[in-house]
Amino acid sequence: MDELSAVIVPLQFGEAMYENLRRLKALNKQYTPVQINEELALPIYSETASLHSTEIPYRIEKVMFEHSPPSINPHLQLKEVIQGFIPQGLEHVLELIPTKWERLDDLILFPKEAFTESDWVDIIEEGIDFYEQIAQVLQARRVGRQQPIANDTIRSSQMELLLGDSGWVEVKDNGLFYGFDACKVMYSSGNVTERHRMGSLNAEDEIIVDAFAGIGYYSLPLLVHGKATHVHACELNPESIKALKWAAQKNNVSKSITIHEGNNQSTLPNLRGIADRVLLGLLPSSEAAWKPAISTLKEQGGSLHIHMNVEEKHIEQWTKDTILTCLNYAKSDGRDWFCTHQHLEKVKWYAPRVRHVVLDVSFSSSNSAS
What we know:
Blueprint: E1 2-10, H1 14-23, E2 34-36, E3 39-43, E4 59-65, H2 74-83, E5 102-104, E6 107-110, H3 118-126, H4 130-137, E7 142-145, E8 160-163, E9 168-173, E10 176-181, H5 192-200, E11 207-210, H6 219-224, E12 230-235, H7 238-250, E13 257-261, H8 264-267, E14 277-280, H9 290-296, E15 301-311, H10 315-332, E16 337-351, E17 354-365, H11 366-369
Parallel strand pairs: 6-7, 11-12, 11-14, 12-13, 14-15
Antiparallel strand pairs: 1-3, 1-4, 2-3, 5-6, 7-8, 9-10, 15-17, 16-17
């Protein structure tokens, strides 16, 4: 216990005085207020003349206080540390504190609108260690802010690093290691269920073609957990390729992955007739790769996992149209196939009334069926 200066008020004025002291930044929140008979003692940093104008009866004395137990609620912890930066008159910004964030390794990634309102500018500039304090209270070393995915062919990440000098992160999910530069490569934690689903499929002895491999989101689970024999990974983004090579080595499967660098419109035709299963994991649409992807399946058929953003009310019709389109592509390629299996997985809401879905569809030829 420590002896500190304290403002002592009747119990009925305790809450009001607590708020007064907090606004004046005089309240020492490292210690717990103490009830003494019918009065409440509030720990303060120092005596303050500003209190002389209050109508609440009080006196200042020395009191023994115990240290406050640390908060176990990260949202309360974040609010408490930010409160210390808020000047009188700007208390309304407390309602703008982010209520959600993503953790990647030791990087806290806030939503794109976090701390961007005009009132935050002066607060952050005057609070020299604003982001350092946030990182500390959330047990991280780096802080970033999400930005819209770049409108380019590789859907680059545009994450803004607010604290730290590197965006490289390493995460472990479902027993697999992924590493990537979050400033340059997109990573969606919301796709975790689909990554795990891929790992639960039986792909033993299969050859996989991943048309949009990225950092190995879906092909690594199939290779490691699904026991696939080999993955042919098509990828355009040099940063994703770097990350995929790192993950392949980290997960001890480098010899089971062949990376085909460049646009899959050029690389897929070189993989004709080798695949048992093809992954088409691009959003908002993978349709541009359907035709060359079908040509990579073996002559007797195989399976496609087609990712797409689809309006909820159109999902059923989209499923029928997609299967018919794929059959027509196969027919134009000289393959007499029919659909033997289909399953639709609703991964998550992508936008209001729009879902990220995955259509699993398997094809077989009449000869192989017989």
